[in-house]
Design brief:
This protein folds into two domains: 56 residues; 215 residues, no CATH class. An eight-stranded mixed β-sheet has the order 2-5-6-7-1-10-9-8. Strands 3-4 form a two-stranded antiparallel ribbon. By secondary structure, it is of the alpha+beta class. Keywords: Cell cycle, Cell division, Centromere, Chromosome, Cytoplasm, Cytoskeleton, Kinetochore, Microtubule, Mitosis, Nucleus. This is DASH complex subunit DAD4.
């Protein structure tokens, strides 16, 4: 009986089958990689859409501010920069008087209801280009506790609301700075405008804050350098240097779901009522 003849193509066919299996495995791995890339691209797309939304908000506000506040006009009548802006796109509740007071309380600032109420007691004026002209500051806040800030110095800010007929945005313009204590006549510290801005913005944006069962999330939309273009330290009060940037913030709210406690806004600090006593204490520091 003649021996069986081995198929001469069997070995070649076996190699082809193995290579096809390897190719299938490679294709499957490539498909998994493509799927991962697609998921990553989708995340990038979402972030890009969010950024475009922020960009549109910033562009809207900056266009409005460029129209009504030409470069060199974003200074108070005492040449202090309006270096923080709460955007008019923020939650309307934050832009109301009571809502802003609660928001500022969540940042650990107390209102000073005496100082800065008129030109005779250090009120400053600002022209927001909204048709209201030069207006006295709406209010003054000092870092908690306010009386200690008066004595020893620290972060404080004045603010105005853009609500005139020509630009009723509701945006809040803030002049923030770090000042020395009462004994040093509340002069601004070196680089005090930028430090006051950065401290306020940092405290507001590093994590959500809460007050009166409301949670606040603050986002830094822009550090705009165009609004103070052309302003040098010689234009600023005390001839203090500044990087010329204005922080534009957007604040949103949500119910606070904490442990039931809330930060209670402190009542107005009547600094003037005990000014003589404060002065005598300060002189002994």
């Amino acid at each position: 009986m003649a021996p069986a003849i081995e198929n001469p193509y069997a070995f070649l066919l076996e190699r082809i089958i193995k290579n096809v299996d390897l190719l299938n495995e490679s294709l499957q791995e490539m498909n998994r990689s493509v799927a991962a890339i697609n998921n990553h691209n989708q995340e990038i797309t979402i972030v890009a859409e969010m950024w475009n939304g922020y960009h549109r908000n910033v562009e809207f506000n900056l266009q409005n501010m460029d129209t009504h506040l030409p470069p060199g006009k974003i200074l108070t009548n005492q040449s202090e920069p309006l270096n923080v802006i709460i955007s008019g796109t923020s939650d309307p509740a934050v832009l109301s008087p009571d809502g802003f007071a609660a928001y500022v309380s969540s940042l650990k600032f107390d209102p000073d209801s005496f100082a800065g109420q008129s030109s005779s007691n250090d009120a400053q004026q600002a022209n927001l280009g909204d048709g209201n002209g030069w207006m006295n500051q709406t209010g003054l806040y000092r870092k908690t506790p306010a009386l200690m800030e008066v004595l020893q110095g620290g972060n404080h800010f004045r603010y105005w609301v853009q609500n005139g007929k020509k630009a009723n945005t509701g945006a809040i313009f803030i002049a923030a700075s770090i000042e020395m204590g009462l004994k040093q006549h509340h002069n601004i510290v070196s680089n005090g405008y930028d430090l006051g801005r950065d401290q306020l913005v940092g405290n507001a944006t590093q994590a959500p804050t809460h007050s009166n069962k409301t949670e606040y999330t603050t986002k830094l939309l822009s550090m705009d350098a165009s609004l103070m273009r052309g302003v040098s330290k010689n234009d600023l009060n005390h001839k203090i240097s500044s990087d010329g940037k204005v922080a534009v913030l957007e604040v949103t709210t949500a119910p606070w779901r904490g442990n039931g406690a809330s930060v209670v806004a402190m009542g107005p600090v009547l600094v003037g009522a005990s000014l003589a006593a404060v002065a005598s204490v300060a002189l002994s520091l």
